Amino acid sequence: MASRAVASNSILDRPVGRGPRTGASIAGSSSSSGAPESVSLSMFALLYSEMVQYYQNRVESISALERRLEGCGYGVGLRVLELLAYRSKEYKRETRLMGILQFVSTQVWKSLFGKPADSLERSIDHADEFMIVDYAPITSTFVSVPADFGGLSVDAYLSGIIAGVLHGAGFFARVTAHSVTLEDGEAAPLASTAALNIGLPPRREKTVFLVKFAESVLARDASMG
Fold it and tell me: What is the spatial distance between Cα 196 and Cα 41, in angstroms, rounded to a whole number?
């Protein structure tokens, strides 16, 4: 597992939020001057690649590696929910299923990556499944997966973050990350491509985070009208 080379003049000192000079940092923290703090995107890419390789050498299967990455992200999700609730004067506890999903795909995504997720979709075939789509998640943009690890989704870390936020808010769900090949004529939204304008070739896949809620969550939501 290797970190992809990126042009230093494009990402050094760029916030993880990916917006030029404006992206909010993880958990939306800010400095004493009131300006959002930022994390070098190149540093994040390096550290994340090292974390993937660390766990890769300590597991015996791709599924076990994904579970390790999900576990790392889960704790982050719990803390992100807590910090957003603490720092936002307008925060209110979400009690409805669509409300918490919109919170994750907008507020959580903006606090971590400086932009909302590209789309939030409901499954046509399964009432308990929803999909959060990101055309350029930073966890897979800078990590190249060897051919013999073709089934590995290094975006499992973000699945864990989503699960942590949902579980912390009382919405129990199984969250998994899936790479989906772009269809003919399908293009990533301009916001996603502009945010990662760093000289890498265009991505041919998007990442779909599949959220499958527990039956108890669906029953509770239905009882609330």
Answer: 10
Which letter does DSSP use for residue 27 in this model? G
- Asked if residues 110 and 15 have their Cβ atoms less than 8 Å apart, the reply is no
Q: Per the confidence metrics, is the pTM higher than 0.85?
A: no
**Rounded Cα gap, residues 21 and 32, in angstroms:** 17
- 43-50 — which CB contacts under 8 Å span 24+ positions? 44/16, 44/138, 45/3, 45/4, 45/6, 45/11, 45/138, 45/141, 45/142, 45/143, 46/3, 48/138, 48/139, 48/142, 48/143, 48/157, 49/1, 49/2, 49/3, 49/142, 49/143, 50/3
The torsion defined by the Cα of 4, 78, 223 and 122, in degrees rounded to 10, comes to -10
Would you call 172 helix, strand, or coil by DSSP?
Answer: coil
Q: Which tens digit of pLDDT belongs to each residue from 153-174?
A: 899 999 999 999 999 999 999 9
